[in-house]
């Protein structure tokens, strides 16, 4: 794995700024642990070989295009991963500032499985802190896009804080046209009674897209996550949600579409640290062509987290003989008076349903597209905002 | 309208229909009765073109066209409709969207213009009202979470919207209470216009009391063994299928 260290993380590539000590510490941790390989449990289905073969260029790419959105929103555009923070027009109650060195110094990305987190901390261009107060009516869009001549590596770092009682929708729109590495770290905190709806719509071309989102959810706060991943050459998203106080809850819904030689790996973990916490998760993968989809959903109900409830479900469609899906729910329970359920299915399009649609006059191709679309859209049916729901379902329709 | 001659159909290599003859003229309603396993549903599936239902001998002509040469969707566009005995649930596909997609796919295949959503909704709402169904069903996924009776009535709604030339109704009456049965019968009678034809597959006399079939046929072991008027269905109701064995003996 030293090839990756050589291409991404030589000491000479550490930016020189006020965070030198933080970066050196991260760099040391990265060298110590190394990048994960197929022997690393959390990475056993996702190889980094595509990345190893790449040379990353420091040349500045052209402007990337901002995706069009069919709803009104405040947009923060991370052009090729970099946010131009001048002239931002943020709504009242929303503020953006650089993270303090003190905050960064306290970060711990763990061992080898957290290598990309350490890489991000060693190499980030910007580390932003977004703080949200009050009831935000309009969604906040974080658009990260790359241009066709993007061959570099970029390491956006963002902390999102919702003040007590705040409500917000954060929609990430990731559009990649390049062939580099986008390595995102997000650190999300919901204070008491806060309510965050966090959506990710992602489509990656040849770039490796690696994202780590960690959310901490305090008393009576509510974290909702929706992901629509429309495939990429190498995409890995780790989502770790910790319910730290009673009354906290998390709901995770996602759909992943892979085709051709795409590879998307979603690892989610929900930590019920204390009792009276609830979670629900539903995840779907549709794999066509030689696509590979990975879903690993972990629920961990800690000792003493009594009276907690969780439900985890993953349903998957294998649409071609050379596609592959690895779907694994993991449940660890150390508490009492807990209800926890999980299920995983992998199947194919239902012949009976196809025939039914065809007897109504719908041609075979259209019938299978309709079935796929119906299957893929299910995790989005519970989105309250009609315009956002229709937008995501529309994005699906374009692909199926 | 429909001319079936010496039809032999095998399912998974096993012959189920063994020389069935049936002619259904325009505007006629034929009832097809018979014991379990006699091949009634097989006929429905074979007409609709289900995979694995192989025509090994004989012929089926629909308005002079050889059905065996058509894909299921082409048969639908030509005017054939099968109401399923067990309507299939299609999760995630909204009922209204599905129906409009079906109607427009058929119209497109026939070279007709697609219907706009206003005209479409008007037609669907009328059918839904006739069948006393809840309009909210339109927004729900096709048949998902529908009760048995709702699924059957939904088949009739589809038939009313798609306006086929020939409808094959496979045990649409089974599992219906008497009120739902009347509504289904009303739905069917409302579509009888002297041109549209029906094959009604049923176990019971009940539905036929409301439909007044032109012909009643009894299917046994893959063949039609008895045909007659409505009195035949009364006789079956009273005596069961035992007399078939007597007449065969």
Short structural description:
Chain A has 400 residues and is α/β, with parallel strands linked by helices. Chain A has helices at residues 2-8, 20-33, 49-52, 101-105, 115-123, 351-359, 364-377, 386-399; strands spanning 74-79, 82-83, 94-98, 127-132, 140-145, 153-154, 157-162, 167-175, 181-190, 195-203, 208-217, 222-229, 234-243, 249-258, 263-272, 278-287, 292-301, 309-318, 324-333, 339-347. The mean pLDDT of chain B is 92.
Supply the CATH superfamily name of chain B.
Answer: P-loop containing nucleotide triphosphate hydrolases
CATH architecture grouping of chain B: 3-Layer(aba) Sandwich
Low-confidence parts of chain B: none
For this structure, what is the CATH class of chain B? Alpha Beta
How do the strands of the widest beta sheet of chain B line up side by side? Answer: 6-9-10-3-11-12
Q: List unreliable stretches of 5+ residues of chain A.
A: none
Strand-pairing-aware structural class of chain A: alpha/beta
Computed over alpha carbons, the radius of gyration of chain A is: 21 Å
Give the helix level of chain B as a range of percent: 25-40%
CATH fold label of chain B: Rossmann fold
Quaternary? heterodimer
Structural summary, described in words:
The complex is a heterodimer of chains A (400) and B (249). With 400 residues, chain A is of the alpha/beta class. The mean pLDDT of chain A is 95. The two termini of chain A are 37 Å apart. Chain A has eight helices and 20 strands. Chain A has one domain. Chain B is globular. In chain B, the strands form three sheets. Chain B has a six-stranded mixed sheet, sandwiched between helices. Chain B has a four-stranded antiparallel sheet with strand order 2-1-4-5. Chain B starts with a strand and ends with a helix. Chain B is 39% helix and 29% strand. Chain B is of the alpha/beta class and 249 residues long. The chains are: A alpha/beta (400), B alpha/beta (249). At the A-B interface, helix 6 and helix 7 of A face helix 2, strand 7 and helix 3 of B.
């Amino acid at each position: 794995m030293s090839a990756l260290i050589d291409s991404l993380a030589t000491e000479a590539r550490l930016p020189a700024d006020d965070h030198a000590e933080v970066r050196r510490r991260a760099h040391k941790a990265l060298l110590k642990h190394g990048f994960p390989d197929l022997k690393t449990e959390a990475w056993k289905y996702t190889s980094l070989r595509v990345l190893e073969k790449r040379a990353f260029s420091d040349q500045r790419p052209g402007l990337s295009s901002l995706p069009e959105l069919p709803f009104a929103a405040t947009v923060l555009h991370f052009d090729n991963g970099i946010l131009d923070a001048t002239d931002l027009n943020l709504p009242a109650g929303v503020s953006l500032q650089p993270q303090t060195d003190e905050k960064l110094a306290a970060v711990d990305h763990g061992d080898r499985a957290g290598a990309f987190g350490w890489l991000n901390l060693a190499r980030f261009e910007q580390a932003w802190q977004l703080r949200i107060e009050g009831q935000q009516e309009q969604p906040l869009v974080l658009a990260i896009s790359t241009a066709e001549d993007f061959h570099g590596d970029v390491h956006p770092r963002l902390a999102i804080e919702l003040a007590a009682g705040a409500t917000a929708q954060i929609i990430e729109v990731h559009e990649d046209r390049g062939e580099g590495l986008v390595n995102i770290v997000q650190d999300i905190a919901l204070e008491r009674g806060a309510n965050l709806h966090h959506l990710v719509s992602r489509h990656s071309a040849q770039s490796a897209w690696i994202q780590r989102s960690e959310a901490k959810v305090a008393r009576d706060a509510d974290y909702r996550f929706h992901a629509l991943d429309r495939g990429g050459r190498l995409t890995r998203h780790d989502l770790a949600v910790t319910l730290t106080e009673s009354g906290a809850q998390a709901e995770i819904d996602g759909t992943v579409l892979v085709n051709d030689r795409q590879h998307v790996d979603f690892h989610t973990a929900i930590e019920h640290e204390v009792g009276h916490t609830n979670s629900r998760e539903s995840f779907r993968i549709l794999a066509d062509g030689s696509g590979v989809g990975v879903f690993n959903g972990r629920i961990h109900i800690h000792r003493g987290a009594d009276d907690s409830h969780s439900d985890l479900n993953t349903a998957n469609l294998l649409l071609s003989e050379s596609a592959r899906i690895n779907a694994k729910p993991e449940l660890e329970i150390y508490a009492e008076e807990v209800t926890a359920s999980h299920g995983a299915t992998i199947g194919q399009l239902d012949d009976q349903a196809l025939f039914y649609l065809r007897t109504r006059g719908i041609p075979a191709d259209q019938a299978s597209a309709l079935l796929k679309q119906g299957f893929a859209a299910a995790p989005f049916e519970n989105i309250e905002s009609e315009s956002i729901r229709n937008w995501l379902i529309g994005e699906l329709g374009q692909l199926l | 309208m429909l001319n079936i001659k010496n039809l032999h159909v095998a399912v998974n290599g096993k012959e189920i229909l063994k020389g069935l003859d049936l002619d259904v003229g325009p505007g006629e309603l034929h009832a097809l009765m018979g014991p379990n396993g006699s091949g009634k549903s097989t006929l429905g599936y074979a007409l609709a073109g289900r995979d694995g239902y192989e025509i090994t001998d004989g012929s089926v002509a629909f308005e002079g066209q050889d059905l065996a040469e058509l894909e299921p969707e082409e048969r639908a566009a030509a005017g054939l409709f099968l109401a399923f005995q067990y309507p299939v649930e299609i999760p995630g596909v909204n009922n209204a969207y599905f129906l409009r997609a079906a109607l427009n796919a058929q119209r497109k295949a026939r070279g007709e213009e697609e219907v706009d959503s206003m005209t479409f909704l008007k037609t669907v709402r009328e059918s839904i009202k006739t069948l006393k169904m809840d309009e909210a069903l339109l927004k729900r996924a096709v048949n998902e979470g529908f009760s048995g009776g709702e699924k059957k009535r939904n088949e009739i709604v589809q038939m009313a919207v798609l306006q086929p030339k020939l409808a094959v109704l496979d045990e649409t009456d089974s599992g219906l209470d008497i009120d739902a049965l009347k509504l289904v019968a009303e739905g069917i009678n409302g579509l009888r216009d002297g041109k549209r034809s029906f094959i009604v597959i049923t176990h019971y006399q009940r539905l036929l009391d409301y439909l007044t079939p032109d012909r009643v046929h009894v299917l046994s072991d893959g063949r039609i063994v008895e045909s007659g008027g409505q009195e035949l269905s009364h006789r079956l109701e009273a005596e069961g299928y035992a007399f078939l064995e007597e007449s065969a003996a």
